[in-house]
Structure formats: structure tokens, C-alpha cells
Amino acid sequence: MRPSKFVVCVVMAVMGMASHWPPSSIGSDDLGKRESATTAATGLPDAKMQKMLVTNPDYGNTSEFHFLITGGYRPETNNLVKYVVSVRTNRERKFFGDNHFCGGAVVSSTVILTAAHCLYSGTTRIKASRMQVVAGTPRRLQRTGQTQVRDVHAAKPHPKYTPKRLKNDIGLLLLKKPLNPNGHFVQIIPLSTATPQPGLKCTVVGWGTVIQFGPTPDEAVNGDVSVNDNAFCDSLEGFGKGMICASDAADHEVDSCQGDSGGPLMCDNIVVGVVSFGAGCGEPNSAGVYSNVYYFRDWIKTNSSTRYEVAVNLQLLLSQLLLLLIHVSINVY
């Protein structure tokens, strides 16, 4: 039997205090004074940010949205986490993993699919040099022999992304060095070739808060949801073109939440959606809203150019060749 939200909140809060878990957000130490005021777009807003979202007219209707897994579970073997990365600032506050703010999906060895709003702090672009991705482990706070950390070469939000209304909320991170897909710990996930049909059973995976404005877990959490029909999705505030929505009709508490943003909605080992937003987390008569991967498929493929991947791999090969030549020359002389 799954514990109530209250019990989960109390237990996780105590655990959070014991291990000094910070909020899942980008703070002033990471991005500077100008950017620190708008952390909600990529994680858990602090009290000042929550107040600003409610009172600042410049943010339109986004005061209703908390930028997104609540009601989720941890499987004994989390096979889906191999497709997911933790998107972080490029420096830790105090310990490994405390700089997580979004999720992403491995769509090639050098490209991560995420949400455009993860590439912004409010309306300000986050520099690629200030981000990194971590793959290969379900544990946010634990570095293992399978953990792969990569710096970001370029961050590409959709050119028609609108921060105020979260339209075209899709983006890409191009990595400086390729990930090493190994089938078990890191794996490339295929893009959807069609808009998912209503009723299709899917799973969202992430390190987002287990309850709205609650603590961020160490281990990735799974949430099983079903794609909703267009009529229901159209009734949700902010829903529009290029979006799909999903929920658990039997248990509304299952939903994505703060810190899950940018993570993949996966159906049959295919990425069909990217966590975008929702009115709270696990609210009755609501659903999580996701960017429709199929709708943006052409843009994703065009901007995940194989030429970039080839260039990165060639650069890596040349570096290895240079090291080999140096090694040979040392042995010869």
C-alpha cells in the first residue's frame, strides 16, 4: 500500500534535513544576481519566487503553473532511467548532485532532449558553459563507476519558444564529449514517429519533488500515466498546439512535479513527450502537460545534426591518435 502524501512529505522532509538537500533550483551562486530571481522556470521556487509569480504581471498566467513525480514508485530494476539524464549547473553547491534542476532524454550520444524552459532562468538564457548533464545512474547524489558527466557545448531552445505561455517548450543540449551508450546504464531512446493515441500507457521518470514544493529525492522515481484525449487536454489552462497531456485516471496524485521538467514521457521505450508544465502536482481533474515529440520531430532531427556528432567523434578520435603518437614517439626515443 502506498503511503499518503502527508506521510511521504514528513518522511522525505526529515530525510532532506538530515542530508541537507537543497531546493531543486538554480541559485544566485550559479547564475548571478540578474538570473537568481527567476529560479522557478527550472526547479523549485523559493518563497520570494512564489510571491513574484503570483504578483508579477510580466509573467502573465504562469502564476498558476509551478513548472514541473508525485505519487510515483521506485522499481527494483529501473530499466528506463538509462534513457534519462540529470541536467545540472556546472558546479556543486556542497556535494555531488545538489545542483540538479531539470531532466532530459538521451536521443544521441551527443544530444540531450529537454524542455526549452530548462534553458532559461525566467526570460534570461542560461549559458551552455554553466550547464552539465549526468547519465548512468538512478541516484542523483551518488557517483559510481557507471556515472558519466558531460559538459554542454551548446543549448538550443526552439526558436519560437515563448517563456510566458510555455509554447514550443522544447530544447536540445549538445554535449562537448559523447556519452558512451552501453545498453544497461546509458542508452539512446528513439523519437516518436506519431502522436500518441489516447489511452496509451506511458511512464515519466525523474528526480523531481515527491510532493508540490517538497524535497527532492536521491533516487529517480517512476510515474505511470496514460495519454489523455484531446477534449480533456484542451480544457486545461495553457494547453495548445504541440502539446499532449497525461494522467492516471485512477490516482490523480501520480504526476510530474518540480525538477522533473525536461524529462521524457516514455511509451514502449520511445520518447513521446517532454515534461513541460502543470497546474500544481497531482491535482484532481488535471494532468501533466508535455511537449509532443512527434510535433517537433523535424526540428529535433534538423538540430541534432549528425554532422555535429561526427565532428565531436572525429575530434575525440584525433585526440586519441595524438596520444598514441606521443606514446609511440616516447618509446622509440
UniProtKB/TrEMBL annotation:
**One GO term (biological process):** proteolysis
Instruction: Extract the SMART domains matched here.
Output: Tryp_SPc
Coiled-coil zones: none
Enumerate the Pfam families for this protein. Trypsin (PF00089)
Q: Which UniProt keywords apply?
A: Disulfide bond, Hydrolase, Protease, Secreted, Serine protease, Signal, Zymogen
Q: What's its EC? A: 3.4.21.4
In the record, what terms sit under GO molecular function?
A: serine-type endopeptidase activity
Segment forming the signal sequence: 1-18
Kindly state which reaction or reactions the protein catalyses. Answer: Preferential cleavage: Arg-|-Xaa, Lys-|-Xaa
The question of whether Transit peptide is a record keyword is answered with no
Kindly state one GO CC term assigned in the UniProt record: extracellular region
Q: Where in the cell is it found?
A: Secreted, Extracellular space
Which InterPro entries is this protein grouped with?
Peptidase_S1 (IPR050430), Peptidase_S1_PA (IPR009003), Peptidase_S1_PA_chymotrypsin (IPR043504), Peptidase_S1A (IPR001314), Trypsin_dom (IPR001254), TRYPSIN_HIS (IPR018114), TRYPSIN_SER (IPR033116)
Q: Is this entry keyworded 4Fe-4S?
A: no
Domain Peptidase S1: where? Answer: 69-305
UniProt family annotation: Belongs to the peptidase S1 family.
Q: Which PANTHER family match?
A: AT26814P-RELATED, POLYSERASE-RELATED
The name of this protein is trypsin
Species of the source? Drosophila guanche
